[in-house]
Structure formats: C-alpha cells, structure tokens
Amino acid sequence: MEALNITPVAALSDNYIWIVSHNGRAACIDPGEAAPVLDYLQWQRLELAQIWITHHHHDHTGGIAGLKQAYPQCTIYGNRDIAAADRHINEGARLAFGGCDIEVWHTPGHTDTHLGYLLHGPGGLHVFCGDTLFSAGCGRVFTGTPRQLYASLQRYAGLPGNTLFYPAHEYTAANLRFAARVEPDNAAVRAAQAAAARTPTLPVSLAHERQINPFLRTDCAQVAQKAAEESGRKPADGADVFIALREWKNRF
C-alpha cells in the first residue's frame, strides 16, 4: 500500500491548494483555480475523488467547476453556503479518504461558516485550516466576529504539539514582520524569519506556532503589554488581547 502524500500546489498569487493522495486517488482542498490542479493530477496520474472546501471565498472555490467537469464523479464537501457541494457538512461530520478518518470542525471567525478538516493519519494529525490559522498569523475577520476567531484559534491551540497545520496562503514572511514588532526579543521569531526565505514554509507544527504566532500567545505578558500600548486600552482577557492584535495587524 502506498503512503499517504500531502503536497502543496501553488495557485493565484499566494495560495496553496493542498493535494492529499493515496493509491492513485486524490482529494484537494480549496481549489482557487483548476489548471494547476489538473496539471498536477495528470503529471502524477491521479484520479480526483474528493474536494474539501473550508469557506466560500473565490480564491478557495474558483476552480471547482473546472475540476468537476474533468472529474464528474468526484464528491465536493462544504458548508451550506457552497452551492457546488454534493454534500453539505458542518461540525461533527466525518469523511474518509486513504484509509484515514477526517473530522470536520466549524471554525468561524474569518467567515461565519468556515470549516477545518482534521485528518487523523498514521503519522499524526494533519489540519487543513483554510484562512483561520496562518504561520505566525491568522485570517482577517469578514462575516464572522473577532471573538469567534479567537475561540477557533484557542480550540486549535488545544491540539497536540506535533499537529501539522496546512494553511491556504504563503503569508509567513509578512506575518513574521508583525510578530517581530509584537515581540522584538523573541529569538524563535528571528530564527523563523531567516527560515522563511525558503518556500513553501508550510506545513507548520502547532509547537512551532506556539513559539512564534502572537495570536496564539495572548497569555504572554509582553504580547498583552504591546496590545495595550497599541490599542490604548487595558485588555481584560485573552480575547481582548487578540482583538487588539487583530486591529493592529489590520493597520500594519
């Protein structure tokens, strides 16, 4: 039996479409465009069996129609606002691919219907988190709320440290510039900045993100102090720190 493979396919200006493949079959996550996926499938001689959508933004869904046309038997999974979905899913749904169990989480914040896909593989836990968590950062808030996004990130933060995250964008270098402003004395951030010159920077482990991602470090005194200085108000709790950081990052 072949091993499970997870590969990033670059798309648009800074997107990654993740391809999970096993024994000649593939699942792809958030196809913002079809052409690079079709090229990869042909090159690797793979049959597209499933598409998993985290949220409705066009840079995550723009390739669905082209892929469905080429592989009409593939099953598309997404929340209720994904019109092209063959199966509408939400919190608690379970998928199966490559002999692995995939758990679906509702992770609102970036959008109110955002989903995460947690693949329980032989090598550990792999999380396709869309635009909720980025390396050293997090998504902007659109149709969700800042407190929802904070809660979704805290939920992810409770997973084992060796969990691997597969965000949908290569934003690491830019996010680290912000992280360095928040924590100028953080040696892990400086080391990550040097490493970010090589792409892809993903996937990333949760243990690594706990060291460098200010949005997962809201309980750190320096992070809270910087958030208070930038916002001009004393945060009452971790959620307040997060909201101040997110507002600051929006202006950064």
UniProtKB/TrEMBL annotation:
Q: Which organism is it from?
A: Neisseria dentiae
Keywords of the record, alphabetical order, are:
Hydrolase, Metal-binding, Zinc
Instruction: Write down the required cofactor(s).
Output: Zn(2+)
Binding positions for Zn(2+) 1 per the UniProt entry: 55, 57, 110, 131
Instruction: Give the co-factor note.
Output: Binds 2 Zn(2+) ions per subunit.
Gene that this polypeptide is encoded by: gloB
The protein's Enzyme Commission number: 3.1.2.6
The record describes the protein's role as:
Thiolesterase that catalyzes the hydrolysis of S-D-lactoyl-glutathione to form glutathione and D-lactic acid.
Superkingdom assignment:
Bacteria
Which Pfam families did the record assign? HAGH_C (PF16123), Lactamase_B (PF00753)
This protein is called Hydroxyacylglutathione hydrolase
Catalyzed reaction equations: an S-(2-hydroxyacyl)glutathione + H2O = a 2-hydroxy carboxylate + glutathione + H(+)
Q: Which InterPro entries match?
A: Clx_II_MBL, Glyoxalase_II_hydrolase, HAGH_C, Hydroxyacylglutathione_Hdrlase, Metallo-B-lactamas, RibonucZ/Hydroxyglut_hydro
One GO term in the molecular function aspect is: hydroxyacylglutathione hydrolase activity
Question: What's the subunit arrangement here?
Answer: Monomer.
Question: So where does Zn(2+) 2 get bound?
Answer: 59-60, 131, 169
Residues covered by the Metallo-beta-lactamase domain: 14-169
Which CDD domains does its entry note?
hydroxyacylglutathione_hydrolase_MBL-fold (cd07723)
Swiss-Prot/TrEMBL GO biological process terms: methylglyoxal catabolic process to D-lactate via S-lactoyl-glutathione
Family statement: Belongs to the metallo-beta-lactamase superfamily. Glyoxalase II family.
Per UniProt, the enzyme's principal EC class comes to: hydrolase
> Pathway, according to UniProt?
Secondary metabolite metabolism; methylglyoxal degradation; (R)-lactate from methylglyoxal: step 2/2
